[in-house]
Amino acid sequence: MASSSSAAGAAAGGGVGEQRGSPSTSVSERMQKSLEDSVETLLGAFASAANQHTTSLLLELWRDEHVKYLKKGYQHLSSTYSVLDSSRPWLCYWILHSLAMLNQHYSSAVCYRSIDFLSRCQDKHGGYGGGPGQMPHLATTYAAVNALVTMGGEKALASIDREKTLQFFLRMKQPFGGFRMHDEGEIDVRGCYTAVSVAHILDIMVPELLENIPEYICSCQTYEGGIGGEPGAEAHGGYTYCGLATLALMNRVDVLDLPSLVNWVVFRQGAVEGGFQGRTNKLVDGCYSFWQGGVFSLLQRMMPELISQQEGWNGPLLAASQGFSSMSDASNCVEEVAGDETEGSVDVEKEKRTSQRPTVINQFMSTDDQLLYGPLFNAQALQGYILLCCQVLEGGLRDKPKKSADYYHTCYCLSGLTLAQDSASHRINAPPPPRAVLGPYSNLLEPVHPLCNVVLRRYYEAVRFFRHSPPVASYLG
Amino acid sequence: MDREEGEDWEPLRARAAWADVVPIPQDDGPRPVVPIAYTDQFREVMDYFRAILAKDERSSRALELTAEVIALNSANYTVWHFRRLVLEALRSNLEEELDFIESVAENNFKNYQIWHHRRWVAQKLGVGAVSGELEFTEIVLLDDAKNYHAWSHRQWVLQELGGWEGELDFCSRLLEKDVYNNSAWNQRYFVVTKSPLIGGLQAMREHEVHYCVDAIKAAPMNESPWRYLRGLFKGDQDALAHNPLVVAACIEEIRKDASCVQALSLLVDLLCAGFRPTPSDTELLHQPVSSPADLASNVCTHLENVDAMRARYWAWRRSLLPSTTPVS
Ligand SMILES: [Zn+2]
């Protein structure tokens, strides 16, 4: 791998290292160059395609192959999957959610078997474990609940013990705001997200559960702008999504420094590849299409808060520009007055926006909300990376060229793809215009809820179902 | 590479020491979904583990059995958890447990469970574990310099048990090897802001700005030091905008290369934070401007071209700039 990459680097020439005339290139540079080469080969084949028919063909989502790959795994996994023996609800979710995005319906027999299996993973004291008889774990609880929500129907939803799930969450809750992933387990930002996302769907968001979460997540935002797994840790796409989504679910995104978060996340999109990297100077990876792409979907729905923070940042510039007489011509008196007026009107505008600011969560709940702002990332380029670099001919999607497909990457590549397609919609729950969908319009996937990552219509069904369930009260006792 | 199944593995049902135990099969139901085609060894080891777990047997044979399960699936958190209960019950030698972790992990230091277990052991061992843990993470990072868990563990050791003395040098060494290693930059920030021996961000700022500017000059496209530079002024944008070293480095890189995205991006932020450019600075992009806001707007427009992937972001940044000079 290393030898082939340096050979490719030498042949192509003009890499980052050569440009600055450095005598030796670092590991990071060599790996980046090697990936860019293989991506450029794939994108190049597309760019040199003779006509529109060919380009459309190259950009096609291989639905049948992916469906076949997913259905096969749901019925049989080889012994190499033994390392995922403690993640079986995840396998259920990755596969069912991928199939749902591909608009595939499952037979009632499959639903019945899935509910039966997941019930065997549900602990008698609440929460779901990685398999039957395993300890309950926050991540597999999230996966199991999302799998059941994705299947939908009363039987699936009613199989979740809300009351005990809440008791489990409260047992994992730490006074400073974080959550243990399991009894005596590790604590990180994933815990907040998995607990709060499930609590939101099940309508068990009691105050004790939410206490100090904003402070904890805030302490994990790094100097780079993204969020790390625990205080001090490096900014990372997965944790940034988890942290931001948690706060959005709580309607507390105001505690974050959003301008620096946005600035960090826009730079995670590879200038050549179009896909997202998880951290600064790492290689792009298909799964971050969702983790980082999802951050943009969330930001798109919290633009009033983001804009007001960004304008706050720009404050000193306004002052500096008004006092900037040395370069201005004689007309600057007029401009200064105009400037004052602008400042005044900006404040009024800001005031108006603050008072009318729609809560973030409302933006996600309502079925016909307007999306006033387009995405802040390049949604077309992301779709290009997923379609051209992540699809595997035998079915399934992958991290990057030369890797093989797996269910995790299939799920998160497709989740990122549907969010990217949807980012140009003007309305939540309305199909995007054809130009927003890269490739043939038949590539369009089912829309997903960007906070919980389940298909939208199943999300509404579950929320309706649990809002009409009797309130949980026993946690008080 | 993997040991062939069954070659030198004696089935538990054939071992005299396990004759009294009735294995418990997995309660998968009649037609489970996502069924894994377990090897016979995997299935049997798990069946015996379930039996021991059900009895809550905290014995030395139980400890050995958890090792067998972990060898087959080191992500099984239930087994690790139970192993800790057994270790406590047996008052086992925890130094040996560190060796066990290393033998399990070999080249796989990517799962949460191994590192969580390691943290638990180190916590029990206390201050005496410091040098061993720093050495251990260093070895892992030698092979995989951006291993997230290894860095988290290292930070935990430093904060919980100490060992800060050589940490800034350690960061410098790693950055010397690979100045693009953002994890090492993050660790550097961690040391500068958290080490009790250094005096904090304020005291270190000037020193770090110099370090950073040198790194930028060596590799202007490297995003890491640019972010670190901003980080040094976190919460004090005014000081950033008025630091002569920062400003000079930024302007110089743009003069050298007018398409240096990182420098242009910092310039926008400097302007937003109140940096007042000199008349010669304002001619950087060879367009006349009448105010800093005007310059910021021009730089954003320029970035929309030279950093096309982020064109939407730069257009958005531009749209939020105060407009003191309406376009005539
Ligand atoms: Zn990945």
UniProtKB/TrEMBL annotation, chain A:
CDD domains: FTase. This is Protein farnesyltransferase subunit beta. Catalyzes the transfer of a farnesyl moiety from farnesyl diphosphate to a cysteine at the fourth position from the C-terminus of several proteins. The beta subunit is responsible for peptide-binding. It is an enzyme of class 2 (transferase). Gene3D superfamilies: 1.50.10.20. Heterodimer of FTA and FTB. It catalyses: L-cysteinyl-[protein] + (2E,6E)-farnesyl diphosphate = S-(2E,6E)-farnesyl-L-cysteinyl-[protein] + diphosphate. Residues 1-10 have a biased composition (Low complexity). SUPFAM superfamilies: Terpenoid cyclases/Protein prenyltransferases. InterPro entries: FTB, PGGT1B-like, Prenyltrans, Terpenoid_cyclase/PrenylTrfase. Its EC number is 2.5.1.58. Binds 1 zinc ion per subunit. Its cofactor is Zn(2+). Residues 1-31 are annotated as: Disordered. Pfam families: Prenyltrans (PF00432). Residues 62-454 form the Prenyltransferase alpha-alpha toroid domain. Keywords: Metal-binding, Prenyltransferase, Repeat, Transferase, Zinc. Belongs to the protein prenyltransferase subunit beta family. It comes from the Eukaryota.
TrEMBL record, chain B:
Pfam families: PPTA. Belongs to the protein prenyltransferase subunit alpha family. This is Protein farnesyltransferase/geranylgeranyltransferase type-1 subunit alpha. It comes from Sphagnum jensenii. Keywords: Magnesium, Prenyltransferase, Repeat, Transferase. It is an enzyme of class 2 (transferase). The keyword Chloroplast does not apply. The lineage of its organism: Eukaryota, Viridiplantae, Streptophyta, Embryophyta, Bryophyta. Its EC number is 2.5.1.58, 2.5.1.59. InterPro entries: Prenyl_trans_a (IPR002088). The keyword Transferase applies. Its cofactor is Mg(2+).
